[in-house]
Design a protein that fits this description.
By secondary structure, the chain is an alpha+beta fold. It is built from twelve helices and nine strands. Helix 3 (about 115-120) runs antiparallel to helix 4. The chain starts with a helix and ends with a helix. GO terms for molecular function: DNA-binding transcription factor activity; sequence-specific DNA binding. This is Helix-turn-helix transcriptional regulator. InterPro entries: AraC_XylS_family_regulators, Homeodomain-like_sf, HTH_AraC, HTH_AraC-typ_CS. Keywords: DNA-binding, Transcription, Transcription regulation.
């Protein structure tokens, strides 16, 4: 086979629930959830190695929620939720590109998503190729989704953009406030009210996220990871990483490697092991 459809886009699970009880979604991949009736809030649950989640986000009927697991949906009264777990390289790219998680989206900005989700949920017995094609079509539709959350104040949005672009070189909130032309106290007050966490905490979370991605590459030493993520050295990286995630970088790297190996086929495991013999 020259091309493996499911490695690019696949449907891994379907949850179709009419419920008033909280729903916790687990599993590796991208969860896409449609609230067809009622209202709910969406939040990320605690996950090993994950940072504390932001406050829950409200979702109204017709809205969508995108995010990783564990994703907790809490209906406010009787609500209907259709949730699909998508796996493969294409869903992973969309997940990595989300500006926030969970990401609440307005259904009218991707009008074909609801129909595609319904077809996928009703065609679990279809061929893997057909499902993969529909999953990919759904991802293309979701690429146009706009956030249902109210826009951030310009100062908070500018701070987030600066942090994400320059986290490796920023010395802290004081430098960030100087770059934005405001006082440190004003920046902290506006940012915390809009985002739910102080800018210094957000900067640390962005650095830890970047470190997690680099730790997946075994060739990067802790000193290299620290320098690329804005930490003063490997020791400081280890202290902050352990405080934020409950694991040392080495422990997190080992756990990520075990998870990756568990997802490989027998043939891929043999090939992976032979590379390091």
């Amino acid at each position: 086979m020259l091309y493996h459809w499911e490695s690019t886009a696949a449907l891994a699970a379907v949850r179709d629930e009419q419920t008033s009880a909280p729903l916790t979604l687990t599993g590796e991949g991208l969860w896409v959830c449609l609230l067809s009736s009622g209202s709910c809030t969406a939040a990320l649950g605690d996950a090993p190695g994950a940072l504390p989640a932001l406050p829950p986000k409200p979702v109204e009927a017709g809205g969508l929620v995108l995010g990783r697991s564990p994703l907790v949906l809490a209906p406010e009264g009787d609500s209907h939720l259709l949730c699909l777990l998508l796996t493969g390289t294409a869903p992973a790219q969309l997940l990595a590109g989300l500006p926030e998680q969970p990401f609440p989206a307005r259904g009218e900005t991707c009008p074909g998503a609801a129909e595609l989700m319904g077809r996928l949920a009703g065609e679990e017995a279809a061929s893997s190729r057909a499902r993969s094609q529909m999953v990919f079509a759904l991802l293309c539709e979701l690429a146009n989704a706009d956030s249902a959350a109210p826009p951030l104040p310009p100062l908070a949005a500018a701070a987030i953009e600066d942090i994400r672009a320059n986290y490796a070189g920023l010395y802290g909130v004081e430098e960030l406030s100087e770059r934005l032309g405001v006082s440190k106290s004003h920046l902290i007050r506006v940012f915390t009210a809009a985002v739910g966490v102080p800018p210094g905490r957000y900067l640390t979370s962005v650095r830890i996220e970047a470190a997690m991605k680099l730790l997946l590459h075994r060739e990067y030493s802790l000193d290299v990871v620290a320098s690329l993520c804005g930490f003063s050295g490997a020791n400081y990286l280890c202290r902050v990483f352990k405080k934020e995630t409950g694991q040392t970088p080495a422990q997190w790297r080992a756990a990520a490697a075990r998870t990756a190996m568990a997802d490989l086929t027998a043939e891929e495991k043999t090939r992976e092991q032979e590379m390091f013999i």
